[in-house]
Structures are given as C-alpha cells and as structure tokens.
Amino acid sequence: MDQKPIELTTWRPSGLQYLAALDILEITHHPDGSCVIQLVSADAKTSVGAVRFESPLATRVTDQGNLGDYWSSGIRITGYNLFVAEKSDFLDWLERSSSGVHRSREVKHYAIFTEDICVEILSRAVPLFAQR
Predict the structure, then answer these.
(1) The domain containing residue 75 runs over which residues?
(2) Is the pLDDT of residue 89 over 70?
(3) Which region holds residue 29: left if phi is over 0, alpha if psi is between -120 and 50, else beta?
(4) What is the distance between the alpha carbons of residues 75 and 66, in angstroms, rounded to a whole number?
(5) How many domains does the chain fold into?
(6) Most CB within 10 Å of its CB: which of 33, 57, 64, 81?
C-alpha cells in the first residue's frame, strides 16, 4: 500500500487573526539564513503579515501543479491554506540526505498551498508571525 506523501494539520501561527485563504506576496531569503514569507488576503488587497523562519533546514517552492503526488493521494485544500506536518516524504528526504542527522531532532514540515505556488519549509524552530 502506498504511503500518503504528507499528513496535514491546520497551522495557525501565533498572532495570525486572518482565518481565510491566504496568498503569498513575496518570499525573501536573508543573509542570516532566515526566510520571510509575506502573506496577503486571497484577493491580494489586504496585507496580513509575515511569517519568519529563523533557520530553515530546507525550502521548496513549486507550482501547485508539480505536487501531483499530494493531489492524487486525496488531499484537497479548501479555505484556510497554512499547514504543518510531522510526517511527510519531504521530511523523510531530509533524514535520508542528512544521513540521519535530523532524525532525533524536532523537525516539522510547514506548508502554504496557494492556487499558483506552494511553499514548503522544514524547520526545527516554530516560525514567528508579525502583522503588518
């Protein structure tokens, strides 16, 4: 039997009040290693804030059409679109590619799935949210 590529749970960053579908305005990688994702309302008229990952272990940005394994496994995104997973193929990849270095640490798979692009980040640290 095939394993699902990801087991999603809704992720609500502390301080985020907006509970509808979000879109990504900008993704910025900084010299200090952090990654900041600017979020806007799905109609792109309202700035919602930014999620900051201090030291992500891996980042994957792709067109939603390239995640066929997710969609064929039965995952459907309707409404709110920020998720976290404790088990996924992406986490398995990190463990394999790091020769198990990250096996004993708390690593989570964060995901923001929009109609156009999908951002997935593997991180030990809980990301910080700041309103604009």
Answers:
(1) 9-127
(2) yes
(3) beta
(4) 14
(5) 1
(6) 81
